[in-house]
Hints:
This protein is an alpha/beta fold. It has helices spanning 2-7, 56-59, 85-100, 112-123, 157-172, 181-192, 206-210, 236-239, 256-259, 261-273, and strands at residues 12-18, 21-28, 35-42, 63-68, 105-110, 128-134, 218-223, 245-249.
Amino acid sequence: MPLIAEAQQHAQRKVQSHAWGDVVWHVWGQEHAVDTTPLVLLHGGSGSWTHWVRNVQHLAQTRCVWALDLPGCGDSALPPLVSDADSLAPYVGEVLQQAFEGQAVEMLGFSFGGLTAGLLAAEHPKLFKQMIMVGIPALGLFEKTLPMRGMTPNMDERQQRAVHRHNLMSMMFAHESSASEEVVDLQIYNVSRDRLRKRRIARTDVLLGLQDRWTCPVHGIWGAKDALYKSTLERVPQVLHRLDSFHVVPDAGHWVMFEKPDAFHTLVNKLLAN
């Protein structure tokens, strides 16, 4: 895929071994990083590092960027008995501690990845120097039903592809032009490797009760047309009172950093410069 091929230029693929299996990082910017604090990117549900495909090269101009395939997603192994963010978070903590030898990192967490980081930061706050939460769930603000379609056994390849496109448009994007054929291919590839099939915690408000245990600066970035927060976006900074700042990117959906990368980068640059 051209998008991935371009993003992978100058990237290093690092395999990190654990007793329960290997995890995979993609790393940029180690040679010329102005700030040597690792910037860790945690992707969303049913994704991989490729959720950051339009961002890694920009961020690596000044930072050492570490994009993880979360355990159970992408090329990383699934630990035993892990099915959702709560059971995943301790393993992500183990991964971070081994990779950075106890050094606090700055974290960009998208959706499920930000939820996982929020759970982890409540138990091990010293792991993070700063957290930037991007469209995260578990704030108790979701609609009762989400506009996703599922697969049925009798669907052919064309019908399955139509479902993937529908789900991208209903959940991730504000504009049909964002769901190109290449992006649909990427979605199919990522979903096929997702072994974390439960999303029960995303629908809860668990992070609201944990946020006071976060000790680092915390910032929020949301797309103005995030389908998960269609009628509740203005309530995010009210319930997530631990945020030091809250930013909304106009005309962008849930996958805000892909759909409006320039506006996203402008915000992130300012937050990382603080």
